[in-house]
Amino acid sequence: MINENFLKLSNNYLFSDIARKVRAYKEQNPDMRVISLGIGDVTQPLPQACIKAMHDAVDEMASAATFRGYGPEQGYEFLRQAIVDNDLRPRGIGIEADEIFISDGAKSDCGNICDILGLDCTLGLTDPVYPVYVDSNVMCGRAGTMTDKGWSRITYFPVSRENGFVPQRPDKHIDIIYLCYPNNPTGTVITTQQLAEWVEYARREGSIILYDAAYEAYIRHEEIPHSIYEIDGAQEVAIEFHSYSKTAGFTGVRCGYTIVPKALCFTASDGKTSVSLHSLWNRRQCTKFNGTSYITQRAAEAIYTAEGKEQVRNTIDYYMDNAAYMHAHLSALGYEVYGGTDAPYIWLRTPHGIGSWGFFERLLHELSLVTTPGVGFGPSGEGYVRLTAFGNHEDCREAMERFARL
Amino acid sequence: MINENFLKLSNNYLFSDIARKVRAYKEQNPDMRVISLGIGDVTQPLPQACIKAMHDAVDEMASAATFRGYGPEQGYEFLRQAIVDNDLRPRGIGIEADEIFISDGAKSDCGNICDILGLDCTLGLTDPVYPVYVDSNVMCGRAGTMTDKGWSRITYFPVSRENGFVPQRPDKHIDIIYLCYPNNPTGTVITTQQLAEWVEYARREGSIILYDAAYEAYIRHEEIPHSIYEIDGAQEVAIEFHSYSKTAGFTGVRCGYTIVPKALCFTASDGKTSVSLHSLWNRRQCTKFNGTSYITQRAAEAIYTAEGKEQVRNTIDYYMDNAAYMHAHLSALGYEVYGGTDAPYIWLRTPHGIGSWGFFERLLHELSLVTTPGVGFGPSGEGYVRLTAFGNHEDCREAMERFARL
């Protein structure tokens, strides 16, 4: 017998639908140069510090004296310690190296974290939202059944211009809450005060927050938190996912990390026994994962060198120039524009009440521009499209010139 | 709430128990040189063809013109096609490139395959067995509860000297059957005729065989099958796992592949609807995985070049020299020795009816040799220890000299 929960999933995946439409357009219009502001993939090369580290690591694998076989499932100490020293301690976060699990990317761990949580947990997440949170829970049966209000066991927190993109905390108990800041897809951020209120909710309710910080490197404003652990008490209620994909262009080499604090416990079904999620996740990883490539981990370590930091900053500045340019240009054209100040995404309100897909089609067919329809991330994304800042400057500028022609 | 199935798992993991004992011995005997014939990790460097391919791929990542971001979740076409052309077509296997999913290693996929199968499936596996098959099913609740005969929903097929290490097909229906050949831990192989009988059973019963071929590169005898798909009709009943870890020393760089044929269907709970496992696994991978490192995939592709093939063959010959030396030497000392002719493992019967752990302790304390107690792989492994051929020649020879002193 199969896992029938899979049959509840729609056959279509947002980005494959878009790819199909773009392919058809290109076939019909072979002379048009299509510019993509669609999928969130980086375009600039890896930092030179990472390139050098990888060449060195490859050479180590060429000699028996320095060859590395199986590494620790949890990741190498050199990388876990570099994370503590650079990402955590300077922000006053007291997470230790053995609470960090190196992954092959945040997408894997955001999905796989489902393994250690009870199937009867209730879920809460923003609408719109990154589809992996929903689909991975549908697959294991935790999301319930699809109704006209969405999945029966998911509580949605709509975010839109009407509430300033600030999700409202629920007035009932929810076991597991997904939060992603800076947000994909809206490009908006959360303040320390707002985040503290979620931590307070989770502590009061005995809930767990799954905090996706994949875009934290794009934060420009001093007062915006980079990690949920900047909030007192968060170590007892939160798991946090990090990614080097957008930070340092690792989408093709695959590395990220997940923090599961030792202080984080969840109750067993008797409502009393408290179980360490750290030990459960460790057991999960030791059984179903064999560590991330040594070469990739050496590249990640190099991000934290002085040269690496400067090179990463330059690439992020490059993308954030695009974001600022799009924000200014589209605003000047009279569009309502959100995000893009502390995130590589612009969340653009469609003009004249056009639907997301309608505006997507106009941009594709009239301007040869690819975007992502907001409604693809959830019903509250209707009336928006997402633009990414990950292209090169020339394409970004030309895309904005085309917008002026609409 | 947590996933309470995790609480059913033993807190101890075989290889961590061993590591703890070895650490204690080393602390008490700092002057003794300990030789490990224990954990199955390779020691020889990567093939030069792979080293060169990785340097080239790293350089591609250093320039925007050749940079690669997200790759296909299923793996790059260049590698999938190389597998078809080299591993499959020459053996008469009609699997196509789009039925192959590149992974970050067989361990991940052996565990993750659980996601697409129904929780009420019954399981069958050999005893002794690779622990991942059992533990990943315990975690999702499919294994049932622990009894004095093992997990309540698992049927065990004992293999030992008494039945020539040939598992007996069950006389009842089982939904999912794990087979691993060349076998870990016993180092024994399966003949085409024996494998055909399992395929016939699965076709008759509507069962699925999960076939772990991680060690197929070690097969020396012409008549031993390298893939279950060498058997007619297997594409309709089998998923097969491959790994480059032992084939080409990829334990530290992480790559393997999984074949899910399009012809493979499983019934839904109505007992009638037939569902393609290929489309379920594809959906699982697109949602919870983001592909294997581009650099690693280029290394894997290089295994299939003329130089790569020769270098891989040389390394495997190197390890198999160890296996042959151990087999001959231990046999001459009067031990009962199994495996090691088409696999990098020797399955040694303990002398005088000593238990696995007892013999392990003697070898550690009297000879400073590390082995793996057979009983750690299951009750029928009692009275055996596993030796691996993955060390260097000098260590292997010295280990055998020490055996002569026992």
What this model shows, in words?
The structure is a homodimer of 406-residue chains. Chain A has helices at residues 14-28, 48-60, 77-88, 106-112, 131-140, 192-205, 245-248, 277-288, 294-302, 306-332, 356-367, 393-404, and strands at 35-36, 100-103, 123-127, 146-147, 150-151, 154-158, 176-180, 208-212, 238-243, 256-259, 265-267, 274-276, 337-339, 345-349, 369-370, 372-373, 384-388. With 406 residues, chain A is of the alpha/beta class. In chain A, the strands form five sheets. A seven-stranded mixed sheet of chain A has the order 2-10-9-8-7-3-6, with helices on both faces. Chain A is globular. The model of chain A has no long low-confidence stretch (mean pLDDT 96). Chains A and B meet through helix 2, helix 4, helix 5, helix 8 and helix 9 of A and helix 2, helix 4, helix 5, helix 8 and helix 9 of B.
Quick rundown:
By secondary structure, the first copy, chain A, is α/β, with parallel strands linked by helices. Chain A contains 12 helices and 17 strands.
Count of extended strands of chain A: 17
Helices and strands of chain A, in order, run as: HEHHEHEHEEEEHEEHEEEHHHEEHEEEH
Most extensive interface between two protein chains, with residue counts: A-B, 76 and 76 residues
Mean pLDDT of chain A: 96
Query: What form of chain A results from the Cα inertia axes?
Result: globular
